[in-house]
Amino acid sequence: MWSPLSRGAKPQRRGRSRSRSQRPSRRIQCPRVVLWVESLEDRIEPAPFTPTGVLGSLVPVSTVAFDTTAGQYQIDNGPWLSGGVLSPDPSQTTMLFDFTTITLNSTVTVTASGANALGLMAT
User: Fold this and answer.
1) Fewer CB within 10 Å of terminal CB in the chain, N or C?
2) Do strands 94-99 and 117-122 pair parallel, antiparallel, or not at all (unpaired)?
3) How far apart are CA 123 and CA 119, in angstroms?
4) Is the full-model pTM beyond 0.70?
5) Predicted confidence (pLDDT) per residue in 85-105, tens digit
6) What residues contact 102, with CB distance under 8 A and at least 6 apart?
7) How far apart are CA 121 and CA 87, in angstroms?
Protein backbone atom coordinates (compact mmCIF):
# COMPACT_ATOMS: atom_id res chain seq x y z
CA MET A 1 0.00 0.00 0.00
CA TRP A 2 1.34 3.41 -0.92
CA SER A 3 1.63 6.17 1.70
CA PRO A 4 2.98 9.72 1.31
CA LEU A 5 5.43 8.93 4.11
CA SER A 6 6.75 5.81 2.40
CA ARG A 7 8.54 7.90 -0.23
CA GLY A 8 10.10 10.36 2.23
CA ALA A 9 7.40 13.00 1.90
CA LYS A 10 6.88 15.27 4.86
CA PRO A 11 3.54 15.01 6.66
CA GLN A 12 1.27 17.96 5.99
CA ARG A 13 -0.35 19.78 8.82
CA ARG A 14 -3.90 20.85 8.58
CA GLY A 15 -4.80 24.37 9.54
CA ARG A 16 -2.54 27.32 10.06
CA SER A 17 0.79 26.61 11.67
CA ARG A 18 2.96 29.19 13.39
CA SER A 19 6.66 29.02 13.91
CA ARG A 20 7.98 29.51 17.44
CA SER A 21 8.91 33.11 16.71
CA GLN A 22 5.32 33.87 15.62
CA ARG A 23 3.63 32.34 18.66
CA PRO A 24 2.52 34.80 21.33
CA SER A 25 4.71 34.50 24.41
CA ARG A 26 3.33 34.09 27.91
CA ARG A 27 5.13 35.22 31.00
CA ILE A 28 4.05 33.76 34.31
CA GLN A 29 4.71 35.94 37.33
CA CYS A 30 5.51 34.12 40.56
CA PRO A 31 5.17 35.94 43.86
CA ARG A 32 8.45 36.71 45.52
CA VAL A 33 8.75 36.17 49.24
CA VAL A 34 11.52 37.80 51.23
CA LEU A 35 12.22 36.74 54.79
CA TRP A 36 13.84 39.38 56.96
CA VAL A 37 15.21 38.33 60.34
CA GLU A 38 16.51 41.06 62.57
CA SER A 39 17.67 40.98 66.16
CA LEU A 40 15.78 43.69 68.03
CA GLU A 41 18.63 44.13 70.50
CA ASP A 42 21.08 45.15 67.74
CA ARG A 43 18.93 47.88 66.23
CA ILE A 44 20.23 51.42 66.24
CA GLU A 45 16.69 52.68 66.70
CA PRO A 46 14.84 50.89 69.48
CA ALA A 47 11.93 48.68 68.48
CA PRO A 48 8.47 50.12 69.09
CA PHE A 49 7.54 46.93 70.97
CA THR A 50 9.36 44.68 73.41
CA PRO A 51 8.88 40.90 73.41
CA THR A 52 7.57 39.46 76.68
CA GLY A 53 7.01 35.80 75.76
CA VAL A 54 3.35 35.89 76.75
CA LEU A 55 2.46 32.96 74.44
CA GLY A 56 5.10 30.56 75.81
CA SER A 57 7.25 28.32 73.61
CA LEU A 58 6.47 27.61 69.96
CA VAL A 59 7.74 24.10 69.15
CA PRO A 60 5.61 22.53 66.40
CA VAL A 61 6.29 18.97 65.23
CA SER A 62 4.96 19.24 61.67
CA THR A 63 2.95 22.43 60.98
CA VAL A 64 2.22 25.88 62.30
CA ALA A 65 -0.28 28.26 60.70
CA PHE A 66 -0.93 31.92 61.39
CA ASP A 67 -4.04 33.98 60.58
CA THR A 68 -2.89 37.59 60.59
CA THR A 69 -6.41 38.98 60.26
CA ALA A 70 -7.91 37.20 63.28
CA GLY A 71 -4.69 37.12 65.32
CA GLN A 72 -4.80 33.35 65.75
CA TYR A 73 -2.32 30.52 65.29
CA GLN A 74 -2.59 26.74 65.03
CA ILE A 75 0.07 24.18 65.99
CA ASP A 76 0.11 20.69 64.39
CA ASN A 77 -3.52 20.95 63.19
CA GLY A 78 -4.77 21.49 66.75
CA PRO A 79 -7.32 24.12 67.76
CA TRP A 80 -6.85 27.74 66.71
CA LEU A 81 -5.34 29.75 69.56
CA SER A 82 -5.66 33.48 70.13
CA GLY A 83 -2.70 35.65 70.97
CA GLY A 84 -1.79 37.90 68.05
CA VAL A 85 -1.68 41.64 68.73
CA LEU A 86 -1.64 44.39 66.11
CA SER A 87 1.59 46.35 66.06
CA PRO A 88 1.55 49.73 67.78
CA ASP A 89 2.68 51.62 64.67
CA PRO A 90 0.18 54.23 63.44
CA SER A 91 -1.02 52.05 60.55
CA GLN A 92 -1.09 48.80 62.59
CA THR A 93 0.31 46.84 59.66
CA THR A 94 1.69 43.77 61.46
CA MET A 95 0.10 41.06 63.58
CA LEU A 96 2.64 40.24 66.30
CA PHE A 97 2.93 36.84 67.98
CA ASP A 98 5.09 36.98 71.10
CA PHE A 99 6.72 33.68 72.19
CA THR A 100 9.45 32.91 74.73
CA THR A 101 11.26 30.67 72.21
CA ILE A 102 10.63 29.58 68.62
CA THR A 103 12.03 26.20 67.55
CA LEU A 104 11.40 25.08 63.97
CA ASN A 105 13.14 22.03 62.55
CA SER A 106 13.67 21.61 58.82
CA THR A 107 10.53 19.47 58.34
CA VAL A 108 8.06 21.98 59.85
CA THR A 109 5.72 23.70 57.40
CA VAL A 110 4.93 27.32 58.28
CA THR A 111 1.97 29.05 56.62
CA ALA A 112 0.56 32.52 57.07
CA SER A 113 -2.52 34.14 55.62
CA GLY A 114 -4.50 37.27 56.27
CA ALA A 115 -4.60 40.99 55.71
CA ASN A 116 -1.60 41.92 57.89
CA ALA A 117 2.09 41.12 57.82
CA LEU A 118 3.29 38.39 60.19
CA GLY A 119 5.59 39.36 63.04
CA LEU A 120 7.16 36.60 65.18
CA MET A 121 8.96 37.60 68.35
CA ALA A 122 10.80 35.65 71.02
CA THR A 123 12.50 36.78 74.22
Assistant:
1) N
2) parallel
3) 13
4) no
5) 998 888 888 999 999 999 999
6) 57, 58, 120, 122
7) 12
